[in-house]
Design brief:
It is a single chain. The protein has 331 residues and is an alpha/beta fold. Helix content is 18%, strand content 19%. It has one domain (45-322): Metallo-beta-lactamase, Chain A (4-Layer Sandwich), CATH 3.60.15. The protein has helices spanning 24-32, 126-129, 145-150, 217-224, 241-244, 251-261, 283-293, 322-326; strands at 63-68, 71-76, 79-83, 113-115, 137-141, 156-159, 164-167, 170-175, 195-200, 205-208, 230-234, 265-269, 302-303, 310-312. Strands 6-5-4-3-2-1-14 form a seven-stranded mixed beta sheet. A seven-stranded mixed beta sheet has the order 7-8-9-10-11-12-13, covered by helices on one side.
């Protein structure tokens, strides 16, 4: 049963946590040993698709364009969908953006819907939201609808885990992942967090994980929603591992999560845009290449996309862009 969504007493979703959140002792150890963030060295080598592709019309097959971080433009079933859109040059408490957005606001088509995974600032960006028409459909976790209504949005769908809503030819299902939520000092876990499975009428199925640690929920998603064509999975913001493991996957865990999901392709995200944690900027890409090579997965199914790159399911664009193909890991 869905928890109450309105009223003066907002529910807590702490009972949905996979592991306890770090406490004062862990935070003290973290800051005593250097804090969260590392260096931006190597940012200029993050692959970018500067030539780009013309955005596909609504009749084209399912496609993804990586805007940067966890932000994608998804074309499916005649809809243009933004996932966790963040176009701002910097975020509260985070340094400046390392790579510009792969698509500018002016390059975006008319957006039919926006899906939000959770309320952290690198996934829910208020300045980007202000650019959208207020009648844009917003699909958000339960507990987060009030934020959108307060910001003037008139069509807001609040979903709990495993709830679905259909827009045109596409079914959107909100699914559980291993993470948490907080936007201010007093709202920890007051809204839910999760990923989105988009299923087209033709059977195309895409998964956007938002932000997640590794755990049993990927296998559950795979059992309940089989046949995922592409899984957009985070591969960055994982170091120091002792602190970040419950909240963020590392690249090896992302490859394992793909197998748990039973998905065909892994589209990498959540790296190369902001310095959030200590690992070197390019390390997530190097490590996902190594982890992939240690499996029997087809190399073509690793979508290590360049910023601004578009890939289309089941066409000749199911291939690396020139930018990502030319990039070679060091060592």
């Amino acid at each position: 049963m869905v928890a109450p969504r309105f009223g003066p007493f907002r529910p807590s979703y702490r009972d949905r946590l996979t592991a306890p959140l770090p406490g004062p002792a862990q935070l003290y150890r973290l800051f005593r040993t250097g804090g969260f963030r590392g260096s931006s060295t190597g940012a200029e080598q993050v692959p970018r698709d500067t030539a780009g592709l013309p955005l596909l019309d609504s009749s084209a097959p399912a496609s993804l364009t990586w805007i940067g971080h966890a932000s994608f433009l998804i074309r499916l079933g005649g809809l243009a969908v933004l996932a966790d859109p963040v176009l701002s040059p910097r975020l509260p408490g985070v340094g400046p953006r390392l790579t510009p957005p792969g698509l500018s606001w002016e390059q975006l088509p008319r957006i039919d819907a926006v899906v939000i995974s959770h309320d952290h600032y690198d996934h829910l960006d208020a300045p980007t939201m202000r650019l959208l028409p207020r009648d844009t459909r917003m699909l958000v976790p339960v507990g987060l609808g009030r934020w959108f209504r307060q910001h003037g949005f008139s069509v807001v769908h609040e979903l709990d885990w495993w709830e679905s809503v259909r827009l045109g030819e596409v079914e959107f299902t909100f699914v559980p992942v291993h993470h948490w939520s907080r936007r201010g000092p007093f709202d920890t876990c007051r809204s839910l967090w999760g990923g989105w499975v988009l299923t087209g009428q033709d059977g195309s199925r895409l998964f956007h994980a938002g932000d997640s640690g590794y755990g049993h929920r990927f296998a559950e998603i795979g059992r309940r929603m089989p046949g995922i064509d592409v899984a957009m999975l985070p591969i960055g913001a994982y170091d120091p591992r002792w602190f970040m493991r419950p909240m963020h996957m590392d690249p090896t865990e992302a490859v394992q999560a793909l197998s748990d999901l039973g998905a065909q392709r892994l589209a990498t995200m959540h790296w190369g845009t902001f310095v959030l944690t200590r690992e070197p900027v390019l390390e997530p890409l190097e490590r996902v290449h190594a982890a992939w090579a240690a499996t029997d997965h087809d190399r073509a199914d690793l979508w290590d996309m360049a910023v601004g790159e578009t890939r289309t399911v089941g066409t000749e664009r199911d291939e690396p862009s020139a930018a990502s193909a030319q990039w070679e890991p060091s060592g």
